[in-house]
Amino acid sequence: MSTSPDASVPGSDTPNLEYTGTTPYEDYVQADVLTHLQHPLSDDPGEMVFLVTTQVMELWFTVIVHEWETASRALREDRIPVAMDALGRSVRELEALNASWKPLARLTPAQFNSYRGALGEGSGFQSAMYRRLEFLLGEKSASMLVPHRGAPRVHAELEKALHEPSLYDEVLRLLARRGHPVPDSVLRRDLSQKYEPSQVVEDIWAQIYAHPDENDELVRLGEALTDVGELVWRWRNDHLVATRRAMGSKTGTAGSAGVAWLEKRARKNVFPEVWTARSHV
User: Fold this and answer.
1) DSSP per-residue letters across 5-35
2) 3-class secondary structure, 79
3) Neighbours of 213 (CB within 10 A)
4) Structure-derived torsion over alpha carbons of residues 185, 186, 191, 192, reported in degrees to the nearest 10
């Protein structure tokens, strides 16, 4: 199926050019809205690239959140194939998201400084959709709701996400339903808190991977999580490198520690026991 504006009318050698209002393509894609959301605040031509790239990232965050919420719901309902499909799509979407760094990856300090002032106190950590993405990965923090208190709808959505099970919580609940001894301290933990690794959960994953014939479906689920985790790690590292090249160790635009903050984030693995269990198989 094509959404191209040049798609021909069935049975005709030429496309239909006559519409009483906006084109069906515009009605569906809202391209006119998207291409008029850019309002650079400096005269530097490079700001347009920075602004559009950031907006593209926000759209990918939205899609990936949708996929992981779909996967979480499917896991809760024991519909593993549906969850696997959503995770598989999110892997391709994460690859596209990570590629979004390419236009910004080689900014020099002078190039970035030419429009950095336009950001004011704006910073990527203030992205509400990225925060929802992090919450789905189990990276929970109530303090991250504070910047959004002035936007009631956004704040309410984030607060709801803070108290809901993460994608990994749903995986661990599935393991428990499959007879694996996931501790109550993990299953009944305060969901608004960051997930902390469990030695028992690590042992469970080690046993699953040690007996792939008996646990084929769970091994494939573990590998899907590994694919996601690897690309999240690459995203964080690409962000770190791009920032280091553009501004070195200077304080971030919103007063954060800048590169030091990103270095701390880049050292963390999501779905931790899926990684550490490999040392014991």
Assistant:
1) TTPPPTT-SS-----SSS-HHHHHH-HHHHT
2) coil
3) 6
4) 70
Classify residue 18 by burial, with Cβ atoms within 10 Å: 0-12, 13-18, 19+. exposed
Rounded CA-CA distance 232/239 in Å is 11
Q: Is the dihedral of CA 197, 148, 35, 40 positive or negative?
A: negative
Q: Is 245 left (phi over 0), alpha (psi -120 to 50) or beta?
A: alpha
Provide the pLDDT confidence category of residue 8 given band limits of 50, 70 and 90: low
Residue 90: which residues within 8 A CB-CB, separation 6 or more?
Answer: 64, 67, 68, 71, 228
Rounded CA separation 248/38 (Å): 27
DSSP-assigned states of every residue in 225-274:
HHHHHHHHHHHHHHHHHHHHHHHTTPPPTTSS-THHHHHHHHTPPSSHHH
Give the confidence band of 12 by pLDDT, cuts at 50, 70, 90. Answer: low
H-assigned helices in the chain: 24-29, 31-34, 46-76, 80-99, 109-116, 128-136, 152-162, 167-177, 184-187, 199-210, 216-247, 259-266, 272-276
Quick one: which H or E segment has residue 42?
none
Give the pLDDT confidence of 203-256 residue by residue, as tens digits: 999 999 999 999 999 999 999 999 999 999 999 999 999 888 888 877 766 566
Helix (H), strand (E) at residue 100 = none
